[in-house]
Amino acid sequence: PYVRDQLYRWIRWFDKQTGVDGYRIDAVKHMPPSFTEGLLYQVQEGLGQKRFAVGEFYDGNPNTLGWWVDAVRRRSSLFDFTLFFNLLDMA
Q1: What is the C-alpha to C-alpha distance for residues 77 and 91, in angstroms, rounded to an integer?
Q2: What average pLDDT score do residues 76-90 get?
Q3: Closest CA to 34 of 78, 79, 76, 64
Q4: What is the rounded distance in angstroms from the CA atom of residue 67 to the CA atom of residue 54?
């Protein structure tokens, strides 16, 4: 909880300092969705900013990808790896 709270504090500070348009979050499949959702909440609701977010969840199963988007309360999109795997199969 201490590390999480410090990270939340830092992300709010970072967002205010930089005014970024959004966030790319790598390897989201290796983090609990509740953690990612909480982090994005800090800037999307906590600061009242509507920041775009995209996660990198390397999986070709559309059901798994949809599950993750729902699990983070639709605060983030995902890269379309289903399309990637389909194009790879065609090649």
Answers
A1: 26
A2: 89
A3: 76
A4: 15
